[in-house]
Amino acid sequence: MLRSLPIAWRITVLVLLGASLVLGAVSAYSYWSARDFLEQQKRAEIRATAQATANRIETVGVAVEKIVQGLAFSVEDTDPGLRRARVLLRHTVASNEEVFGSGIGYEPSIYGRLAPYAYQPSDIYGSPEVQGANPNGKIVVTDLGRGGRVYQAGDWFQLPVQMRRAVWTEPYYDEGGGNIVMATYAVPVHLGNDPVPVSAVVGGDVSLFWLTRLLEGLDLGDTGYAFLISQTGAFIAHPNQDFILNESIFSVAEARDDPQLRAIGRSMIAGKAGYVAFDGVMSLTPDERSWLAYRPVPSTGWSLGIVFPDREISADVVALSRIQWGIALLGIVALLLVALFIAASITRPLRALDAATRTLAQGALDAPLPQARGRDEIAHLTTSFGQMRDSLRAYIDELRETTAARERIESELRIAASIQMSLVPRTFPPYPQRADLELNALLEPAREVGGDFYDFFLLDNDHLCLAIADVSGKGVPAALLMAVTRSFLRSFARESDSPGEVLATLNEELAADNEECMFVTMFLAVVDLRSGAVTYASAGHNRPFVIGSACGVTQLPRVRGVALGAKAGIVYDEGLLTLAPGDVLYLYTDGVSEAMNARDEVYGEERLGEDLGRLCAGSCDDVLQGVLDVLSAHAAGVEQWDDITMVAFRYLGPPTSGGDGVV
């Protein structure tokens, strides 16, 4: 698309593109540097906030533990009884803002089901500013065992009884007491000589509503938030109220099939601290990349997490980048105007030259060119165009003559190719009246004319001569030698039925006065159609294959003999084989076995033998066409570099009647 623009615009576009790339690189570097700096600062800030918040919750937890432990000591030392216990609990709740409620649950065997409990009603409880301050002294005291309630089945009672030590319970909804979601620190107490190991349990409650308000008060941007999970991963505090006590970090991970969230949950409940990036897990805006800092609350076994969206970290950088890009855009507009002015002044002479060359392109070689002014490149180009115009006139005249001569040569080559193809048998089947043989051949020249040829003819009613040859070189010289060789072959083969003698005689004729040192490879065979006996000789040619009727493929043994025309006085050995009815004798030239593909891999005789085995069930024509298809697939579009010539002869057995092979 850029090349279709005028040069002035192309110069302008390239200048702007280069400037934009440099500006973009600088802006990108500035953006990422600023982002990294702000991210490090925000990471440190989030970690500090998480640690400070965890410390604050830890302080409340430790304070509650101390208050409850002190209360437990008082109960264990004095066993205050119901009235004093209520006063003691009221005083404990009123004077300690960290405690939402406190109670004493007695073992039923001591006082029956007696569990005095003091708490601050929810209408004045919740805000960190008023939690426990209780300016009106409004403390409610009740009995958790009233109405036959089995308070001792609750975790706050059972856990310290069974474990014989102080524990923090999992968060729960305190129905019948404070009627809010809370967590309890419970301490087991033994009274006097009571035979029961645990006589009572003293507990202090922390409101999870207060924890939620505490976390909501953190400055975490527009969409950042904090959450708190228990020792088992259950959500104690979360901006999504549906999560609290209904979901755990592991149930969310399971629902979203998020292994990263499961790993984070395991790390949090193990009491570890960390800072990780994640995409959308637990996020109020799903699929948004965020950062999570988490810290343990050691006293309770809880873990605090703070989530901060990535976009808020980069918000300042984005604002700065917008200003930078706005200034850059104004600079690019100014640069565009300057570049257009400069490019127009440079390309004005080029436009005039372009108009003149368009006229030349339409054939008006006498049209004037702009005057060359100055010594710059445009002036040199104008002068060069003038010289080119003069040279073009002369070239056109020469081209007319050359084209006429080339057309004559191409016409002669087409005639030569037609003559060459007429020298080889092209009618198949060649002997339709005979039932003792099947024969087919194929010749695909690499050029208009080539040096390969095949031939076959009956020496008499019972003997068939088969020949295939490859002349060295390509083109017209090879075609001429091919025609001469074929003529000699037909003449000498009728004088002797010995393939070795025929090749020796043919070699003497071709070697005489062979100043061009051209040679011919040839395979010659005489088939006795009565018995299937084959006498053959080879002048340095590729060894043929025999395809058995049972699809076994063998290559003929090598017989001694060099290429025809190379040297006079050569003796050619003969070989002998017998074809069984149904056997196929397959002849070919090196254009088949040495066919190349784009990776310069040779087709090869080994693969040819394998493919012939797969094609054995077809007719002779099927065998030749099958090999040709395999060669085409192997070459995969690579230009054919040598002639491809093949002959397939199938011996069908002696005739069943008559002396001419006709059934």
In one word, what is the shape? elongated
The percent range for helix content is 40-55%
First CA to last CA: what distance? 74 Å
* Content-based structural category: alpha+beta
Based on the coordinates given, report the CATH architecture of the largest domain: 4-Layer Sandwich
Q: Name the CATH superfamily classification of the largest domain.
A: PPM-type phosphatase domain
Rg, nearest Å: 52 Å
Number of helices: 15
CATH class label of the largest domain:
Alpha Beta
The total number of structural domains is: 4
In total, how many beta strands? 22
CATH topology term of the largest domain:
Phosphatase 2c, domain 1
Beta strand %: 15-25%
Major beta sheet, specifics?
7 strands, antiparallel
Indicate the low-confidence ranges by residue numbers: 123-135
Mean pLDDT: 81
Give me some keywords for this one.
7-stranded antiparallel sheet; 663 residues; alpha+beta; Beta-Lactamase; 5-stranded antiparallel sheet; 22 strands
Short structural summary:
By secondary structure, the protein is of the alpha+beta class.
Describe the structure.
The structure is a single chain. The protein is of the alpha+beta class. The protein is built from 15 helices and 22 strands. It has helices at residues 7-78, 81-95, 108-111, 155-163, 208-216, 249-255, 259-269, 310-313, 315-361, 377-422, 475-493, 499-511, 590-593, 605-614, 620-635, and strands at 101-106, 116-119, 140-143, 167-168, 172-173, 181-189, 200-207, 225-229, 235-237, 274-279, 289-297, 302-309, 437-444, 452-460, 463-471, 520-528, 533-539, 545-547, 553-555, 575-578, 584-588, 644-651. The strands form 4 sheets. Strands 1, 2, 3, 4, 5, 6 and 7 form a 7-stranded antiparallel sheet that branches. The chain has a 5-stranded antiparallel sheet with strand order 9-8-12-11-10. A 5-stranded antiparallel sheet has the order 13-22-21-18-19. A hairpin with a 4-residue loop joins strand 11 and strand 12. Mean pLDDT is 81; it is low at 123-135.
